[in-house]
Design brief:
4-stranded antiparallel beta sheet; alpha+beta; 2 helices
């Protein structure tokens, strides 16, 4: 004689195919999604930080698909000119203090 009572396995209720997850699953799902979102944000931040080495400081359109721009690469600045068929280095610009004079000198060389 066995004194241990027999326990019947639980059977699913008919028609209950869409049951909500338990409270523990909600917390785990929220944690996983939050962690994934943070990883995505960090990847975007690193990618944007890596692209900061090159930036266009100023850009002036000269019409007919021509432009003059000041481009900064790391700590150096360059004056470049471009058209529909070419891009040219016009001048390497000094520090920001003498930039106006250098722009005027470079503009004199273009004319």
């Amino acid at each position: 004689m066995n004194s241990v009572p027999q326990i019947e396995p639980l059977q699913p209720i008919a028609g209950d195919g869409l049951s909500l997850p338990r409270v523990g699953h909600w917390g785990q799902t929220l944690w996983i999604r939050t962690w994934s979102a943070l990883q995505w944000i960090m990847q975007r931040a690193r990618a944007q930080h890596a692209r900061k080495n090159l930036r266009v400081c100023e850009n002036v359109s000269l019409g007919d698909k021509r432009f003059v721009a000041v481009v900064q690469v790391d700590e150096e600045r360059f004056l470049i000119g471009g058209s529909s068929s070419a891009v040219s280095l016009l001048a390497r610009l000094p520090e920001a203090k003498g930039m106006t004079a250098e722009l005027e000198r470079a503009a004199g060389n273009i004319s």
